[in-house]
## 1
Amino acid sequence: MNNRPIGVFDSGMGGLTVMRALMRRLPYESFVYLGDTARLPYGTKSRETVERYAVQASRALVARDVKMVVVACNTASVSLPAVEAALAPLPVIGVIGPGAEAAAKAAPSGRIAVIATEGTVNCGAYVHAIHARAPKAAVFQAACPLFVPIAEEGLTQGPIALAIAERYLGPLVARAKPNALLLGCTHYPVLRDVIRQAAGDVALVDSAETTAQAVAALLEEKDLSGRGTRAQTCAFLVTDAPDRFARVGEIFLGQPIAAGKVELVDLQ
Ligand code: DGL
């Protein structure tokens, strides 16, 4: 039994969709969540910059005595090898591998569409990860940059969200004719309803759920499980604007976050 917390890191509040899945899946574990809100968004930044930020943020979690780090940001998961090297031998897990695994399983005929930030699309992280598991899969991608700000505005339903979803997904679905659509960005699960309406009859794959399953399996494998009698605790750290994090974060976590519980930290 290991009662140290699990560290969860994202560029901001979107990773709370992964945190939500982790909290549900692992009710006996405690968590420290770090949102790098001062430097959000990562999705439009270069790979080198995102790698530097991801390593800094992960080290800040290690300073909080975490037993494992979950890189809950799709864009930052591209930096997984650098984070692993910096934290070794601490276990580190990202969202790309579990998401790719689930997409490969959900599309036996091998037509998979991936939607993500520009950064994730440009580096082809999901394309490589899916091909590593299903070499014959046909993988199509589209960046959906407006999904991040509308999700943070709480515009998750209604005509504006649906029009944007149709604008992105109409051409993608026509071109790809996918069996599975992978939501390759932390913000997209809260837009699930409009994405489903715009994409039609296709299996939606959410990397948050599959990452939570992978974390549970890794805890067992490394004998790090916190299964005990203690109640679950969650600490929230941000690099800027704790009040906004608490307010907007509720959209992604699905439950209120008390503003007084969000701590401001400096990663420099
Ligand atoms: N967390 C990012 C991701 O999953 C989305 C927000 C950002 O661009 O920083 O790719």
Note: Residues 10-12, 14-15, 40-43, 73-75, 117, 120, 148, 185-187 surround D-glutamic acid (CB under 6 Å).
## 2
Amino acid sequence: MLRAGELVAFPTETVYGLGGDARSDLAVARIFQAKARPRFNPLIAHVPDLASAEALAVFDDRARKVAAAFWPGPLTLVLPLRAGPGLSPLVTAELPSVAIRVPAHPVAQALLRAFGGPVAAPSANPSGRVSPTRAEHVLAGLGGRIAAVVDGGACAVGVESTILGLAGGDAELLRPGGVPVEALEALLGQTLAMGGHAGRPSAPGQLASHYAPEAAVRLNAMTVQPDELMLGFGPVQGALNLSETGDLVEAAANLFHLLREADRMAAGRRIAVAPVPDTGLGRAINDRLRRAAAPRG
Ligand code: AMP
Ligand code: MG
């Protein structure tokens, strides 16, 4: 099912994750749709071991030391993204960093090894609800919206992974979680400041470093003007189209690629974007489009 781009929830030691192929734009778009997430915040890529993690991100000595001590386990590392690992831009929200975790749960390990690629997996609950720690919680929240849930019983840790930011200079705590901060501080020999203030991407919706097109962007355009390149949606045609059939999952999967493509093709013109309905995934798409259209500093 994962190989077919479908969503499979699975147990980890923290909470149940909603898994999709992290290399597939469509699978990752489906994750946002199933959770009804109002924003494209970055997701954690799950891999079975350090070697697979090193294919996605750049590890320095500090990162290797932390990984050696706490992986597999309830710790996520945010590290510089390696060039060309084939991750969907929806996973990293176009940031130059990537969040990676190696879960310890034997079912998660077996699934990741059998699949053989990175699995994007936020918690398997509708956006804004309590995280699921049993398969029945997953079904109660997402039943009918996902292909399957692998039942591994109750999660042992029950809270999300600790997120440690190692992408910049100083190590920073981006989210407290299953690994105690004190244990990380002892290993690193320093106190950890809580990161994630304005400009940092740890808080969903504060993704100031999102890619913004060079071109000016006009939203809710029904027709294209002479100095514009049109990015269409559904019946509103353009040189490019987010989804000819007006499918919001397809539009979300295409969004980041097509914004870049439109920017390349615009060559000094503005980008006009057709209206996208503000329901379901359309909310996250419009959130991203508003950022692209916002006045630049
Ligand atoms: P969830 O997948 O719902 O457990 O949430 C993932 C968390 O990791 C969110 O708080 C994200 O903002 C954070 N995160 C994921 N990728 C990155 C990244 N590249 N840089 C900083 N934070 C990240
Ligand atoms: Mg969550």
Note: Residues 41-44, 78, 92, 95, 97-99, 122-123, 160, 163, 174-175, 201-202, 204 surround adenosine monophosphate (ligand 1) (CB under 6 Å).
